[in-house]
UniProtKB/TrEMBL annotation:
This is Nudix hydrolase domain-containing protein. Signal peptide: none annotated. Its cofactor is Mg(2+). It comes from the Bacteria. InterPro entries: NUDIX_hydrolase-like_dom_sf (IPR015797), NUDIX_hydrolase_dom (IPR000086). It comes from Kitasatospora cystarginea. The lineage of its organism: Bacteria, Bacillati, Actinomycetota, Actinomycetes, Kitasatosporales. Residues 6-111 form the Nudix hydrolase domain. Keywords: Hydrolase, Magnesium. The keyword Magnesium applies.
């Protein structure tokens, strides 16, 4: 189970990390420990990667990443907005330098160019959910699930 933070600043920019073990940029966060609650895992892993002391509570979206040859990944995405002053303090802590190459504040329109497709869709879905609190919470591969969700429409078309 992955637990990530969608962290935005007053301009609406999103904080992204570029981990050495992944292709492209992603939201800060990481795996929950055994028995650890998702919001606490997000708090711990975001702090470890960015130095930001944030406290998450409600999940913004839950996104399932299907894998054809291994178990699927459940991604819990939590939201936090930081002040301009707090945004300036985001840095890679010394103990994370070996696994995080860079961090950057990125405008929403530039996310797809930096992130792998699945990560970009997850971030877009989380930003939409942040702007529209009644938007779908449950996603598969960054696409909403349900009668009006993209994933539902794609699955229905493919199944015909």
């Amino acid at each position: 189970m992955e637990c990530q933070g969608l962290i935005t600043d007053p301009r609406g920019f999103v904080l992204l990390v570029n981990p050495d073990d992944r292709d492209g940029w992603t939201l800060p966060g990481g795996p929950a420990r055994s028995g650890e609650l998702p919001h606490l895992a997000a708090t711990r892993t975001v702090r470890a990667e960015t130095g930001l002391e944030l406290h998450f509570s409600d999940a913004l979206i839950v996104d399932i990443t299907p894998h054809p040859y291994s178990p699927q990944t459940v991604n819990h995405v939590f939201a936090a907005q930081v002040t301009t002053q707090a945004a300036a303090t985001a840095t890679i802590p010394a103990r994370a330098l070996a696994r995080i190459g860079e961090i950057a504040w990125v405008g929403p329109g530039h996310v797809p160019g930096r992130c792998a497709d699945g990560h970009a869709r997850r971030i877009r879905s989380a930003l939409l959910r942040l702007a529209a609190p009644f938007a779908p919470v449950y996603h598969v591969d960054g696409r909403a699930v349900g009668p009006e969700g993209e994933h539902r429409r794609r699955t229905t078309r493919a199944g015909r």
